[in-house]
Each structure stands twice: as structure tokens, then as C-alpha cells.
Design a protein that fits this description.
Blueprint: H1 3-19, H2 29-40, E1 47-49, E2 52-56, E3 66-72, E4 90-92, E5 95-97, H3 101-118, E6 127-133, H4 144-151, E7 156-159, E8 167-171, E9 173-182, E10 186-187, H5 196-209, E11 223-231, E12 237-238, E13 241-250, H6 256-266, E14 270-273, E15 281-282, H7 288-295, E16 300-303, E17 316-318, E18 333-335, H8 336-354
Parallel strand pairs: 3-6, 3-7, 7-17, 8-16
Antiparallel strand pairs: 1-2, 2-6, 4-5, 5-18, 8-15, 9-13, 9-14, 10-12, 11-13
Length: about 350
């Protein structure tokens, strides 16, 4: 077999092993150990923190910039609509079935294969750091975010998520806001109290209609959606509080903190973000890694879904084998030739940048 064929064969075997091992978010210890052992068998030193595993190229040179290759090995819990055993990897008609095969096992093993291709090369312009991380599916604090300080200075990143190997050069951020409108309780039969529901309605209407001044070239306006409302205790009591939840999809035209500040200045209710961690991200279309992908016939787009890109403060492109539309679906699968193509395209893109 050629080197690329060997890389593909080993990647496919690793993916089967990962699929067969339960790795729900926060329960990825066994798949982390499998990844460690995979590298150990190839005499590659690894680092581990909780369920995150990372490694560097053999001839790491601190004077050179470093590229991060990142994907996750945790999975969601399987849908009740599965007709197959989600932990039994099977190949039928060119499809590898199994939980996490598409999101994001195919991406992870393809990036590992790519890392192996470059691992012992001596004439590279960049170092490589391969990080297989945890808790991506729940945006947890013990995944990529935990180990970023340990990875060292990073120049840019490839984040492996299923994109049909097209280039997601921007990604929306996410803020979930808990809002509370305050009134004063009273008897509904008399002119008493101050109805918090009515006060909330005015703010909800603001969230529905407000348009931020800046719009993203890729995504257009920021999208805000009121998704949950709670108020009242019984029919004859004017409610003193009304709480509601707002889903805010932030674009690369703003930082999360800027959007939060504008909202808090415009509405009368109390607004508390659950987190500002999940930032919007973007990479210049003229960045060398993006141009390398375009030269290989890849197209660029803005991704509506959130990934570990949101935790990075460096330029990053989200790209990988598989199709986002298959993620979290019953009887999840990835085409085996998508993995093979993914490895080849990752290598070709990075060769244009690093050699």
C-alpha cells in the first residue's frame, strides 16, 4: 500500500474502535485511552489532561509557528429512533454506520492521519499540534478550553467538523440570555399591582424587531429569538415577575460582550447571560490555508452551527469529511471514501502552506 492508503486504512480501523467505545460527553475516558494507545504504538509521545489528548510533531522547533489540528471524540447520546446498535461499527454500501462516525469521528481520524503524514518531516515551515478533545457536544469547560493554555503559542487552526470538505470561514457565536421583568403583585379584580407580563411584552417586542447597526458580510444581521416565557401563579394574581429566555446568534461583526452591552442599555428587564464563552469566529479569505483550499476546488461559506471554533482566539477554518446534516441523526454514518478524500485534501492543503 502507498503511504496514503496506509494512513486511510489505519484511520478507518481507529474510527471503528472509537465507535465501538461509548464516549458520551464527560464520559470520554476510554476513547481518550484508545487515542493514547494509538500514538504509543507508533512511538509518539502524548500529553493528557482529563479526557483531552494532544501531541506534537517529532522535530518540533520553538522558533517556528504552530498549526493546531483539532477535533473531538465525545458524542451525543443516541436517538431513540436508531434501528442499529449505535456502538456497532458496520460498513454497508460504502457507508460506515455508528454513533459519532460523522460527528466528528471521521474528521478526527482524518486529522490524526494527516498529523502522522507530517509527523517526522524535517523541512516544514510550521510545527503541528494534534489535539483530540472532549466535551464539544455540550460546550463543556473541560474540553479544548481547558487545554488551550497548555498547547503553547498557536498560529492558526483547522477544526475538524463535517463540512463535506468545504471551508467554513466564519461561524456564529451563541449567547443565551435569561431576562427578568419586574412588576408588583396585586389582585386581578382591582386596579392593583404592576403586571410584569406587560413590561416583558415591550422588551420581547424589542428583541423581535431590533436590528444591530453592523451586519456580517457572511451572515447578515444578528439573529435574536425569544424561546421560553414563564410568569404567573394563578388567574387572579397580577404577576410580579416574568422571566423569558433569548437565543442570540452573534455574527463576526461584533464581540459577544458588545452585543450584551447594547441589549442591556436598550431594554428595561434584567438581562443575565449564561455565558459569553461561545464567540463568533472568522478567518480572512486571503489567509494562506483558505487560499490553499480554494486552489483545490473548495468553496467557502459561513457555518450556522457552533463548534470548538468558538473557544479559539486565533484564525481557524472549520473543514472536514462527512455532512453536518447527518450529525445527531438516527443511524448516523459517514461514507468511507469521504474519509479517504478528507485525508488527501487535508494533506494537500497543508502541503501548500508548510512546504
Amino acid at each position: 500500500m502507498t503511504n496514503t492508503e496506509t494512513l486511510y486504512h489505519n484511520a478507518l480501523q481507529l474510527l471503528k474502535e472509537l465507535i465501538a467505545t461509548q464516549s458520551f460527553s464527560k464520559e470520554e475516558d476510554r476513547t481518550a485511552s484508545i487515542i493514547e494507545e494509538f500514538f504509543k504504538q507508533r512511538n509518539i509521545s502524548t500529553h493528557r489532561k482529563l479526557n483531552n489528548v494532544w501531541a506534537y510533531n517529532k522535530y518540533f522547533d520553538a522558533a517556528k509557528p504552530t498549526i493546531l489540528l483539532n477535533s473531538h471524540h465525545d458524542t451525543v447520546r443516541p436517538s431513540s429512533a436508531y434501528t442499529r446498535n449505535p456502538l456497532e461499527p458496520t460498513i454497508e454500501d460504502g457507508k460506515l454506520y455508528g454513533l459519532g462516525s460523522n460527528d466528528a469521528g471521521g474528521c478526527l481520524v482524518s486529522l490524526i492521519a494527516t498529523f502522522l503524514h507530517f509527523y517526522d518531516k524535517t523541512d516544514l515551515k510550521y510545527n503541528f499540534c494534534l489535539a483530540a478533545t472532549a466535551e464539544e457536544e455540550i460546550s463543556g469547560v473541560n474540553g479544548l478550553e481547558l487545554v488551550i493554555p497548555d498547547l503553547g503559542q498557536l498560529e492558526f487552526a483547522i477544526v475538524g467538523e463535517p463540512t463535506l470538505m468545504q471551508l467554513a470561514i466564519a461561524e456564529r457565536g451563541l449567547m443565551v440570555l435569561d431576562c427578568t421583568a419586574h412588576g408588583k403583585s396585586g389582585h386581578a379584580a382591582r386596579e392593583e399591582g404592576e403586571n410584569a407580563i406587560y413590561k416583558a411584552m415591550a422588551d420581547i417586542e424589542w428583541f423581535r424587531n431590533y436590528r444591530f447597526a453592523e451586519e456580517s458580510e457572511m451572515f447578515g444581521p444578528i439573529k435574536m429569538s425569544v424561546t421560553v416565557i414563564n410568569a404567573g401563579s394563578q388567574h387572579n394574581v397580577v404577576p410580579a415577575t416574568c422571566t423569558f429566555t433569548v437565543d442570540v446568534r452573534v455574527t463576526d461583526a461584533y464581540r459577544n460582550e458588545e452585543v450584551l452591552n447594547i441589549i442591556q442599555q436598550q431594554v428595561s428587564c434584567d438581562v443575565v447571560p449564561r455565558s459569553v464563552r461561545l464567540k463568533p469566529s472568522s478567518i480572512d479569505k486571503n489567509h494562506p490555508i483558505v487560499q490553499a483550499g480554494i486552489a483545490l476546488g473548495r468553496t467557502t461559506y459561513g457555518s450556522p452551527t457552533t463548534s470548538d471554533q468558538a473557544l479559539l482566539d486565533i484564525p481557524s477554518v472549520k473543514v472536514g469529511p462527512g455532512d453536518s446534516a447527518r450529525s445527531h441523526t438516527a443511524d448516523e454514518f459517514i461514507y468511507t471514501n469521504e474519509i479517504e478524500e478528507g485525508i488527501k485534501l487535508y494533506i494537500q492543503m497543508l502541503e501548500k502552506v508548510t512546504t
